[in-house]
Write a structure and sequence with these properties.
Blueprint: E1 2-6, H1 11-22, E2 26-31, H2 38-48, E3 53-56, H3 62-69, E4 75-78, H4 85-90, H5 92-113, E5 117-123, H6 146-164, E6 169-175, E7 177-179, H7 198-206, E8 213-216, E9 228-229, E10 231-233, H8 234-247, E11 252-258, E12 264-265, H9 266-277, E13 283-286, E14 295-296, H10 301-307, H11 315-328
Parallel strand pairs: 1-2, 1-4, 2-3, 4-5, 5-6, 6-11, 7-10, 8-13, 9-14
Antiparallel strand pairs: 9-12
Bound molecules: nicotinamide-adenine-dinucleotide (NAD) and UDP-4-deoxy-4-formamido-beta-L-arabinopyranose.
UDP-4-deoxy-4-formamido-beta-L-arabinopyranose (WQD) binds near residues 85, 215, 229 and 292.
Length: about 325
């Protein structure tokens, strides 16, 4: 298939592009580099040994997208979004503009060009504070921050589009907690400034860039008092996107959880990372982070049923791969 990958130079997009190219797909990456760089595109080419077409542009530029889509594109994978929860609380309009206006421009362009196959990056954030775990796709949805609202709104917009055009086919993928890196150690997660997510923070402590980890709360009603999440290897996510592409073309909108189906506490993550890296990860307990929930993990059985997909890699492997990337590139793509 010829696939337009919006946001393909980002963390999940870059790993997915390598896997797509390895499966023989023709990939066009479209990215404005607001959270990535040319180095990533070069590494995607090196790792896959395939030629990658890259176009620098913004998804809000409908004309640019229409031109690209008219060139025989079969499907779009749409990763392009701003993703920092606290950033979205500080600048909600910037997030609404980028994530919502950007996706609407993309949908317009797809409609004009007659491209009717879409895989959309959603997030477990749409579940807000879950009433029960494991979380199924039919659990109540609620946005607890502007970023989450952008995902919830776009899920609904895409769902409505599928209703009005029975030929439009969309798969909405709700990622739980992406982690890890490509096994080569040449691409990985490269946060801007201090990481807000746990795994990259732990990796930066282990490599000596930060003194210690602040663990947000040790009084949750969980097995060791720290928060429990469903960490999913980024290579497993990449595999799910390739499988999702094969299911497009039948019309309708399908929503799938992508998680491992098991939860790990913060202390378990720290311990797994220490084992994988052979380094100590000093930590201290601090107050809970506003908006955090005690525990969240997926029921991924619908993805297994529809895509034939389940997570292959465990937490230990996520930590080993994240460590290979972090230790080889302490300053991310700048080293
Ligand atoms: P990322 O920031 O690494 O990648 C996003 C890419 O999109 C970047 O390369 C960025 O430059 C690009 N981009 C952003 N806005 C753009 C625009 N207007 N036009 C063109 N390009 C633009 O993020 P990621 O972790 O790879 O996340 C990918 C998707 O998955 C996002 O939609 C995110 O909301 C979603 N998601 C991420 C997580 C996570 O924890 N990483 C969890 C759930 C869902
Ligand atoms: C995991 C656990 C923290 C950092 C976020 C977004 C969500 C999605 C994935 C995009 C929690 C604890 C963390 C630290 C800590 N992103 N923690 N010290 O909060 O589950 O989800 O990323 O869609 O929308 O909200 O992930 O990695 O931030 O936290 O103790 O320095 O680690 O309290 O228990 P979270 P996380």
């Amino acid at each position: 298939m010829k696939v337009l990958v919006c946001g393909g130079a980002g963390y999940i997009g870059s790993h997915t592009c390598v896997t797509l190219l390895e499966h023989g797909h023709d990939v066009v990456i479209f990215d404005n580099f607001s959270n990535s760089s040319q180095v990533v595109v070069d590494r995607i080419g090196e790792l896959s040994g395939a030629s990658v077409r890259f176009v620098r542009g913004d998804v809000r530029d409908q004309d640019a997208l229409e031109t690209l889509l008219a060139d025989g594109v079969d499907a779009v994978i749409h990763f392009a979004a701003l993703k920092d929860v606290s950033g979205s609380c500080q600048q909600p309009l910037v997030y609404f503009e980028n994530n919502i206006v950007g996706t609407i421009a993309l949908l317009h362009a797809m409609q004009s060009a007659g491209v009717k196959n879409l895989v959309f990056s959603s997030s477990a954030t749409v579940y807000g504070e879950p009433e029960a775990v494991p979380i199924t796709e039919s659990a109540p949805l609620r946005a607890t921050n502007p970023y989450g609202l952008t995902k919830l709104v776009m899920e609904q917009v895409i769902g409505e589009l599928c209703k009005t055009d029975p030929e439009f086919s969309a798969i909405l993928l709700r990622y739980f907690n992406p982690a890890g890196a490509h096994p080569s150690g040449h691409i990985g997660e490269d946060p801007n400034g201090a990481p807000s997510n746990l795994l990259p923070y732990v990796a930066q402590v282990a490599v000596g860039l930060r003194d210690r980890l602040d663990i947000f709360g040790n009084d949750y009603p969980t097995r060791d008092g720290t928060g429990v999440r469903d960490y999913i290897h980024v290579m497993d996510l990449a595999d799910a996107h390739v499988k999702a592409l094969q299911k497009l073309g039948q019309g309708g909108c399908v929503t799938l959880n992508l998680g491992a189906g098991r939860g790990h506490s913060v202390l378990e993550v720290v311990s797994a990372f220490e084992c994988a890296s052979g380094r100590r990860v000093p930590y201290q307990f601090v107050a809970r982070r506003h908006g955090d929930v005690a525990e969240a993990w997926a029921d991924p059985s619908r993805a297994e049923k529809i895509l034939g997909w389940h997570a292959q890699y465990n937490l230990r492997r996520m930590c080993e791969d994240a460590w290979r990337w972090q230790s080889g590139h302490p300053n991310g793509y700048r080293s």
